[in-house]
Amino acid sequence: MNARAFRRSAAAVAAFSASAVVLAGCAGGGDSSGGDSDGQITLTIATFNDFGYTDELLQEYMEANPNVKIVHNRAAESGDARSNYFAKLGKGGLADIEAVEIDWFAEAMQYSDLLAEAPDSVKGRWLDWKEAAATDADGRLVGFGTDIGPQGICYRADLFEAAGLPSDREAVAELFDGDWNNFLDVADQYKAATGKPMIDAANSVLQGIVNQMEYSYTEPDGAVIATENPDVEAMYNLVVERAIPNSAYSGQWSDDWFASMANGEFATMLCPGWMLGVISGNAPDVTGWDIADVFPGGGGNWGGSYLTVPADGDNVEAALALADWLTAPEQQMKAFVNAGTFPSQIEALESDELAASVNEFFNDAPVGEILSTRAEAVTVAPYKDADYFKYHDALQNAVNRVFDGVEDQKTSWNTWVAEVSAF
Amino acid sequence: MTATDTRPQAPSTSAPAPRPEKRVRVLSFSQRLSRWDLKVSPYLYISPFFILFAIVGAFPIVYTAVISFQEWDLVRNSGEFIGFDQYIWILSNPQFWTALRNTFSIFLLSTVPQLILAIFIAAMLDRNIRAKTFWRMGVLLPYVMAPVAVALIFSNMFGDNHGLVNNVLTDLGLPAIPWHKDPFWSHVAIATMVNFRWVGYNALILLAAMQAVPRDYYEAATVDGAGAFRQFWSITLPSLRATLIFVIITSTIGGLQIFDEPRMYDNVGKGGSAQQWLTITLFLYNIGWREWNFGRAAALAWILFLIILVIGLINLMVTRRLVADEGGRGVAAPRRRGLGKKGSGR
Q1: Given a cut of 50, is residue A18 above it in pLDDT?
Q2: pLDDT at A2
């Protein structure tokens, strides 16, 4: 609760300071376009949450390039950044470098012609699927990949032990090794032993499964397959029939869910790298969290971001150079150490530093090594077009309705079908 | 007074005078200027409002109408004419009708208890109590709070599992209330936030009206042997009629535009999984600022405009009737019927 309240007030503060920064940025931009003799330019970069771009990291670039001054403004949530992005894209007023989350990256790709193209030298830096998603139909690469979200399973060793389940990392990895039915079998076992739900939220299971599907709601030719896709219906039925009885909540990020996490009420969570920070930040007093090198149904990626450079900015060339530098493997490694944003660059994935990193809160788990294996296990790059989140959001609501007892399984599915047919 | 007296004089003295042909030419430029000044300047003085209104009021309304007939791309600022399709989409969408139901339900749940409470508080404050100003300022305090802050605090209190209200209820052995599941209870929770904020404000307005009721009525009623309740029912309430109508109209407009409270009621802010607390303005926001479908959002904005217009007209008709057959007492009465009857315009 406190963390939530804090984040909201932080959002207000951030919005306030961001506007101040934007004003300052405008003033700076005006100076530079006025023809400065020594070629001083000011670059603005807009991110959200925590990308791990600390002042020290940016200072490093400013020292190497004395003519560049970097102004960094951070929005509290990616949703705020999204509103700002689409309200100003193509009209001017965006920062020189704008961060885009994978959730709404497909929406941004609709306007790839309004974004500057990355230089050829950076091509091949990222994992194939990460780079492919940022390349438009004309072959222009318009996004610099930052992080990815390969998922493991976070679990509470103490609660597992109390439930008579294995509790050390390797044994748990073995326990969950299998498909989603196996994962839910363990949840049944846990519930039988303790009477409590094992999973934090039913919709996180839905999220986990949908991120393993290549085509869920739409196909590249524009065909909408959402309601006829047997995989989607099977996923819905599995989540409703088996995940709901084993989940403490329906959706994540509610006040209740945060309070429940702080009180240590559930035993597992599906864990992309950035989730580690969410857990340790919101449940600092809960002991026993650990992370297992396993994920139901193979690997899965959840989240990750890109940096984009709007083509109508004042200093496009300099902005491209900075984005290039920030997303280079060396800098991304520093960001990972700062904020746990797991690198999407091939070279960083192979680095010794990554392999050696451990997380104290998670029982000194070798998170670098675990998440690297998890990243390798990702085989499917889900196709997500601009409408993806509309469909997925509506399906999450369908699960919520069953969870809340507002509608039964069949009715809620039909409501969803009616809803998405109206899109 | 003197200014308005002399003003009409100016044309009448100069106008009949220059009747003969010759004199017209004598009319100097400065005279002509002052004549224009006389005719044009009143419009000039009121023009800032209308110019401003044209820019920030009329133009957006018209432009919204233009967009509502198009498939609009916000980023590229261009659209394609598609006729009434957006309106048809809105009106045939079940979510719209749910939103309409919720809006009216929340409106009723907030307005009715709010007015009853406000009248009660005003009646209490109208009595002889100590530290009057303290109490009067006290009831206005919630109104000073930002609506989003109120919504944040109350949303926390109305949590399903970890909320203060449900904790107290379960401690007392009562069943927990499904605040975020059942439409009725979610409306009650949102109406509570609205009531918390507006009761004090309305109470002060009603208090002002109560204090304008001539005290002789109460004295006469006391002499006639009427009790406190009878006095309230037969003197205070009828006298408040005009003020009550004002309060009802303002809360109607506010109620139809309710947004902050339902938006902040959960972390998603989309009105619930089954649209339990989706209001029309929230629906409008979701379409416009989450789906970036400005064509549909504009169509919905116009539908909302028309709904408010219709309800405003109904309000006007009801108001007129009520004021027209108002009894002889009260604040509005002496002024309306002239001062001859009773000179208590204070």
Answers
A1: no
A2: 45
Contact: B268, A251; criterion CB under 8 Å: yes
| Chain B residue closest in CA terms to A110 | B75
Q: Which of A320, A336, A356 is a domain's end point?
A: A356
ipTM above 0.85, yes or no: no
pTM of the model: 0.77
pLDDT tens, residue by residue, A193-245? 999 999 999 999 999 999 999 999 999 888 899 999 999 999 999 999 999 99
Average pLDDT of the residues in A319-335: 93
Per-residue pLDDT tens for A64-113?
Answer: 999 999 999 988 778 788 888 998 998 888 999 999 998 789 889 999 99
Region A328-346: what's the mean pLDDT? 88
Residue A270, SS3 per DSSP = strand
CB within 8 Å: B155 and A422: no
**Domain count along chain A:** 2
* Distance from chain centroid for Cα A373: 18
Residue B147 near residue B190 (C-beta atoms within 8 A)? no
Q: Kindly determine whether residue B291 and residue A89, on different chains, have CB atoms separated by under 8 Å.
A: no
Assigned token pair, B207: 């208090």
| Chain B, window 253-282: residues with a beta carbon less than 8 angstroms from a chain A beta carbon | 266-268, 273-274, 276
Chain A interface test: which of B85, B161, B179 (most A C-beta within 10 Å): B161
**Chain B positions in Cβ-Cβ contact with residue A200 (cut-off 8 Å):** none
Residue A328 shares a structural domain with residue A295: no
Range of the domain at A380: 150-302+359-421
The model's pLDDT over B98-138, given as tens digits with 9 standing for 90+, comes to 999 999 999 999 988 999 999 999 999 988 888 888 998 89
For Cα atoms A307, A313, A315, give the angle at the middle one, nearest 5 degrees: 90
Question: Are residues A199 and A281 part of one domain?
Answer: yes
**Does A2 reach chain B within 8 Å, measured CB to CB?**
no
Note whether A200 and A58 are same-domain residues: no
Instruction: Give me the residue label for tokens 């949703």.
Output: A79
Residue B300: phi and psi, rounded to 5, are -65, -40
Amino acid at B286: N
A294 and A167 together in one domain: yes
For domain B87-336, say whether CATH 1.10.3720.10 is its number: yes
- CATH classification at residue A329: 3.40.190.10
Nearest-5° Cα angle at B273, A403 to B286: 160
**Domain shared by A289 and A412, yes or no:** yes
| Nearest CB to A259; choose among B74, B162, B268 | B162
Q: How far apart are CA B195 and CA B142, in angstroms?
A: 10
Q: Is the pLDDT of residue B324 over 70?
A: no
> In angstroms, what CA-CA distances link B73 with A82, A94, A105, B68?
16, 18, 17, 12
Report domain extents, chain B: 2-68, 87-336
Same domain? For A126 and A200 the reply is no
CB-CB under 8 Å, A406 with B274 = yes
Is A37 in a helix, a strand, or coil? coil
Instruction: Please check whether residue A404 touches B, CB under 8 A.
Output: yes
* Residues A347 and A259 placed together within one structural domain of the fold: no
Task: Give the closest of B92, B93, B161 to A256, CB-based.
Answer: B161
Nearest CA-CA distance, residue A404 and chain B, Å? 6
- Minimum-distance CB partner of A422 among B93, B155, B181: B93
Give the whole-angstrom CA distance, residue B53 versus residue B49.
6
Q: Scan for tokens 């007129």, then name that residue.
A: B320
Contact B274 A83 (CB under 8 A): no
Check whether residue A237 and residue A220 sit in a common domain. Answer: yes
CB pairs < 8 Å spanning A and B: 72
On chain B, the residues whose CB falls within 8 A of the CB of A418 are 94
For testing contact with chain B, the best of A6, A82, A391, A406 (most B CBs within 10 A): A406
